[in-house]
Structures
1.
Amino acid sequence: MPQLDACPLCRSVLEAGARVCPGCQADLTPYLDLEALIERYLVLAREYLDRNKLDQAQVIADHLSQLTNQHPAEQAEIAARLAILKGDFQAVTALIPQLKPDVAEAVAALMQQRKAQLFKAHELYNHALSAARTGALPLAAEHTAQAVHHDPADASIWALKLKVDLKCGHWQRCYADLENLDRLGARPPEFYRLEELLPPLSS
């Protein structure tokens, strides 16, 4: 159950479970309801971030910034984790001093892990590109499949994966590639109507 440490109106210190301010006699119910909503938003934002759902987490973060400025450390945590998913490590570094020490340590570890993932994705992309240029298409397909696992937000990797899967005749993968390119809003113009040319998926 959410609690307030002080009255939002007169700043009187509140006892645990208080619903009326002892100082100004204000009804604290609306503020407790707002606090409960903020707590739900914080939980939901963390759940979306844990599942790498960047867009949904961003919407929740935007709502939080409109509702309150009374949870700076928690909001900074959400912002830092969003920045990690976006690859904006400069923003993460700027936000870390605003975090609680244990959270700062965890966020710094997440940032290093994300950096390693992006490096690996870029390395695999380059391997796939080299393999495709030499005609080693199965190898290129394997590299692109691994690369998108490390960085599912890089449209250039999905575009290369689609081209390789097309040449390999991996039709089901092509549909998945197109779906992910659409998710990123990055389908190349030459593939706008590709589904009409692909064999239908077997039911």
Note: The mean pLDDT is 91.
2.
Amino acid sequence: MKKRIVTLLASAAVLTMLAGCGSSETSEATSGFEVESIETATEAPANEAPAEETASEETAAEAKPEGEVDVVLDEGIDKYEGSWYEETAGRGAMEIGPMGDGKYNIEVNWGSSAAEMAAWRFTALYDTASGDLTYDDGSYQVITFDENGNDTVTEEKSVHGVLHLNDEGKIEWTDSAYASDEPSIFVK
């Protein structure tokens, strides 16, 4: 993509220079001009790998086993990555960071009061068939705070769940810590 942008910019610059000359020879020379001719004449900078090496790296990336791929959509924007907030009550906050190879580090904090909060920590895997993030070995804790700000873990268990990105761009999150069939909805 970067090479194509550089090529298009170079093409525009050449055409601008040639158009500025004002001679009829210039207009005849540019009438048959094709972008492809510049692409083949453009050399890769010294610090970039030749096209053959780049193609083999792309093929290797495509050959990852199922569930072990990076989820990069819409020209490099990862739709799961970032800060998300629970839509209804606004007490939940979710941070999602890609780790590569289809893995995501996810932290969720949900305040139930000034003196108590729930915290989840887990690594989720991207499921290529469904497009969901799934996890089986998450950590769930309920943390209480005393009047001095000291914290105590009052509940702790292992959890599993699914994060699904719906058609509206919202995350629907279900987790085994709660027995509800209704997902929690998170928005950016």
Note: The first helix runs from residue 2 to 21.
3.
Amino acid sequence: MRRIVFATNNANKIREVKASLGDQYEFLSLADIGCTEEIPETTNTIPGNAKQKAQYVNHNYQYNCFSEDTGLEVGALDGAPGVHTAYYGGPERDAQKNMAKVLHELSAKDDRSAQFRTVIALIIDGEEHLFEGIVRGRIADAPRGNGGFGYDPIFIPEGHATTFAEMNAEDKNAISHRGRAVAKLQAFLQQ
């Protein structure tokens, strides 16, 4: 079985991706390989940050690896929070503050359209590949549901009446931005 590192320590992301990729690879986290330092995310794009993290792990730890970066892009906010999604409400990466800031900034706006975008950067056998997943939807008027993480309580995917946080994990993963990107990654790895 081949080893592959997912360049994150976010337990929620690891759980989602592992559920999709299954047992075809020995799946390692940053903690598993002893990577405890903060990996740089200094580009101004979602694909750039995903590539930067994968390149860092590959160069410094010599593992086949993949990394992802995800952004919530809100139409009425000119695509914000975008690449700053994790820190939108402040440097502490607090989901409640992030959601509160988005809801406050949308309070006087009619357009609540938004999309989640995930880009996965894979480095395997010295080659780089990118996989993108997008799910369109809208921002709810207030947080709803107890599942998921991040902005899930305020994001309603297109064609649904419930937020990601109101869905069970299996239903969310089947339609989510990360699920779509991981499906492309999985198809590539199975070739």
Note: The radius of gyration is 16 Å.
